[in-house]
Design a protein that fits this description.
Elements: E1 13-16, E2 19-26, E3 31-37, E4 42-46, E5 51-58, E6 60-65, E7 68-73, E8 77-80, E9 86-90, E10 94-101
Antiparallel strand pairs: 1-2, 2-3, 3-10, 4-9, 5-8, 5-10, 6-7, 6-9
């Protein structure tokens, strides 16, 4: 993979109604996504094998991880353990970065 990339060159894809994703790339054991959520979009409860780290750039999420719900705002971050049930609802237009390990296939 090219070590330097520019966000303007990365394809935008609607991965869920109201959610635009940009696949930033991957290494051997992890991959990174950039997300833009419209206001009040819920990513339904789900789980996956990959551990997930997320950082909120702007806006916020009402996030539920393993049955615990918290409000997170720009500058806050979260960790989702492997196979943990989780969901997110955007509060305002929300921008975030997620890192997955092992690599999570994004459809």
């Amino acid at each position: 993979m090219e070590p330097f990339r520019y966000i303007k060159d990365v394809e935008k894809k609607e991965v869920f109604k109201g959610v635009i994703g940009q696949y930033l790339g991957s290494g051997k054991t992890m991959n990174v996504m950039h997300w833009n959520f419209e206001d009040n979009v819920t990513l339904p409860e789900h789980s996956h094998e990959s551990e997930q780290f997320g950082y909120i750039i702007k806006g916020g999420f009402k996030a539920t991880i393993n049955g615990v719900t918290k409000m997170l705002n720009a500058g806050d971050y979260y960790f989702v353990p492997s196979n943990a049930m989780h969901s997110f609802t955007s509060v305002g237009e929300t921008e975030a970065i997620d890192v997955f390990s092992p690599i999570k296939e994004i459809k």
